[in-house]
Amino acid sequence: MMEKFTADEKAAIAMESFTAINIAGLCRRHGVSVSNFYKWRDKFIESGKQGFYGSGVNNGYEKENEN
């Protein structure tokens, strides 16, 4: 079975939800079930949160030691 939404579409809908007043309306507008939406949003938030944990590699986001 092929997924109806791409990863980019899921991310865009998840991001749109942060400013949406009515989640049910957002889901109806995009043709996604509310339960699937919350799964996507939770996965989106969890994945994004991982970016705040260091991997031991300086990705240019941390200030280098200037000593």
UniProtKB/TrEMBL annotation:
The name this protein goes by in its record: Transposase
- Transmembrane intervals: none
Identify the Gene3D superfamilies for this entry: Winged helix-like DNA-binding domain superfamily/Winged helix DNA-binding domain
Q: Native species of this protein?
A: Thermoplasma volcanium (strain ATCC 51530 / DSM 4299 / JCM 9571 / NBRC 15438 / GSS1)
| GO BP terms | DNA transposition
* Any Pfam family hit: HTH_Tnp_1
The family database entries (SUPFAM superfamilies) matched by this protein are listed as: TrpR-like
Q: Name one GO molecular function term.
A: transposase activity
**InterPro entries, alphabetically?**
Transposase_8, Trp_repressor/repl_initiator, WH-like_DNA-bd_sf
